[in-house]
Design brief:
Layout: E1 11-20, E2 23-33, E3 38-42, H1 49-56, E4 64-69, E5 72-73, H2 81-87, E6 88-91, H3 103-113, H4 119-132, H5 148-160, E7 166-170, H6 178-193, E8 197-201, H7 205-211, E9 214-219, E10 222-228, H8 229-234, H9 239-248
Parallel strand pairs: 3-8, 3-9, 6-7, 7-8
Antiparallel strand pairs: 1-2, 1-4, 4-5, 9-10
Helix pairs in contact: 3-4, 3-5, 4-5, 5-6
Length: 249
C-alpha cells in the first residue's frame, strides 16, 4: 500500500455538480487521487460513477464546482480539450475500434493524426504496447477477428499509445465473459504496477480489493465513503456502503 501524497493531488474534484435536464446526477462530488495511485469508484447503478470519469476528461462539462488534472483546470472555459485528452486516456465498456483497420492501424492512428509523431517511432511503440497487452502476433488482424477481451486490450493499447499521464477505465469488463474479464484485468494490473495513475469505475469487487490503493463509494451522486481500499472493504463505516458490499461480496 502506497502512502497517499495529497499535498498536491494529481486529480482533484471539489463540489462537482452536474444535471442532465431536471435530473441531478452529481450532487457535490469531492474526490482526490494522488499521482501513481490506483483508485476505484464503486457503487450502485445510476450513482454517477461514469459521469465522474467523463467530467475528468471533459467529455461532460460540469455545472458547478471544479475539476483539476495536474496543473490543468478542466472546468476552465478556455480549456484546450485536445491537450487534456493527450494527458488523460479513457477506455470505455465499448471498444470503439475501427472495423476496417487492422489492430496495428487502430493503435497507431491517434499518435499519427493528432500528435503528428514520426511513423517509425509510433509503429515501434504500438508493437511494444501490443506485446505488453499480450497481443503480439495480432498486429494485422481486424477487430472482427478478435474476441471481446482481445478487442478491449487493443483499446487499452490504443489509449496508452498517446502516452497519457492518467488512465481512466469505465466498466471495461462489463460486456465480457468471465475468462476474458481475467485477461483484461490482468493487463490493467500490469499498467498500474508500472506506476500509471489509474482511476477505475468497476463492479469487479475482488479486483478492486486486490489492486486499488484507495476506494470511493458513491450513492445518489455523492461520494458517501472513501478510504484505503482494504479498510473500506473490511470495515465500511457508512450503512449505505455496508448494505452495498453485503449485496455484491
Amino acid at each position: 500500500m502506497k502512502k497517499r501524497d495529497l499535498d498536491a493531488p494529481f486529480i482533484e474534484l471539489q463540489d462537482v455538480r452536474k444535471s442532465f435536464g431536471t435530473t441531478a446526477v452529481l450532487n457535490g462530488v469531492d474526490l482526490a487521487v494522488a499521482r501513481s495511485e490506483v483508485a476505484c469508484i464503486i457503487g450502485p447503478s445510476g450513482s454517477g460513477k461514469s459521469t465522474v470519469l467523463r467530467c475528468i476528461n471533459a467529455l461532460t462539462r460540469i455545472d458547478g464546482g471544479s475539476v483539476r488534472v495536474g496543473n490543468t483546470r478542466v472546468d476552465d472555459p478556455r480549456l484546450d480539450t485536445q491537450a487534456l485528452h493527450r494527458r488523460v486516456g479513457i477506455v470505455f465498456q465499448g471498444y470503439n475500434l475501427f472495423p476496417h483497420r487492422t489492430v496495428l492501424q487502430n493503435v497507431m492512428m491517434a499518435p499519427l493524426q493528432v500528435l503528428r509523431r514520426e511513423r517509425g517511432e509510433v509503429e515501434a511503440q504500438a508493437r511494444a504496447l501490443l506485446a505488453k497487452v499480450h497481443l503480439a502476433g495480432k498486429e494485422h488482424a481486424y477487430p472482427g477477428e478478435l474476441s471481446g477481451g482481445q478487442q478491449q486490450r487493443v483499446a487499452i493499447a490504443r489509449s496508452l499509445c498517446m502516452q497519457p499521464e492518467v488512465m481512466l477505465f469505465d466498466e471495461v469488463t462489463a460486456a465480457l465473459d468471465p475468462e476474458t474479464v481475467k485477461e483484461v484485468l490482468g493487463v490493467i494490473q500490469e499498467i498500474a504496477a508500472d506506476g500509471m495513475t489509474c482511476l477505475l469505475v468497476t463492479h469487479e469487487m475482488r479486483f478492486a480489493r486486490e489492486v486499488a490503493d484507495y476506494l470511493f463509494f458513491m450513492d445518489k451522486g455523492r461520494v458517501v465513503e472513501h478510504g484505503i481500499a482494504r479498510q473500506v472493504f473490511d470495515a465500511p463505516v457508512d450503512p449505505r456502503t455496508r448494505a452495498f458490499l453485503d449485496k455484491v461480496l
